[in-house]
Amino acid sequence: MKQKRAPGGGRKPRGPFKENRARLSLRVTPDIRRALVAWAKARKLSLSQAAQSHLQKSLSRFFHPRPDIIVLTEMIARVIQDVERTTEAEWGQSINFLLTLMNPVNGSTTEPFSAILAPA
User: Rounded to two decimals, what is the model's pTM?
Assistant: First the structure.
């Protein structure tokens, strides 16, 4: 018969997760688990630590004192992703990308940013 571990006999949490005391069990789709495992491995975290990190980020958005800022940053991220898909360039790699992002109407890099913001 397999011997049961004594209470508190497992590995102790380390780093930013050392205060973990409460248990949480949940079921997820295989795709979510695979993505979470890959994310955890890339950051050298356990599956539990990766899940906790994502939950913390999600809850911080929900409880942020300025939800309008959260919405705006998510909108900016979506615009950047759309421009990256269209231009097939990463936003941080090219000044032309940033200029195009600042002027999405015609993609011109010659029009100054202030003219884009000025009322017509």
Answer: 0.49
Pick left, alpha or beta for residue 77 (phi over 0 → left; psi -120 to 50 → alpha; otherwise beta): alpha
* Distance (Å, whole) CA 39 – CA 36: 5
Report yes or no: 99 and 109 within 8 Å, Cβ to Cβ.
yes
Please, what are the averages of pLDDT over each run of 10 residues along the chain (120 residues)?
A: 70 75 89 94 90 86 77 86 81 68 55 47
- Would you call 114 helix, strand, or coil by DSSP? helix
State the Cα–Cα distance between residues 83 and 92, nearest whole angstrom: 12
Give me the DSSP letters along 45-107. --HHHHHHHHHHHHHHHHT-S-HHHHHHHHHHHHHHHHHHHHHTS-GGG-HHHHHHHH-TTT-
Task: Name residue 64's amino acid.
Answer: H
Answer whether 20's CB lies under 8 Å from 10's CB: no
Using CA atoms, how far apart are residues 67 and 110, in angstroms rounded to an integer? 34
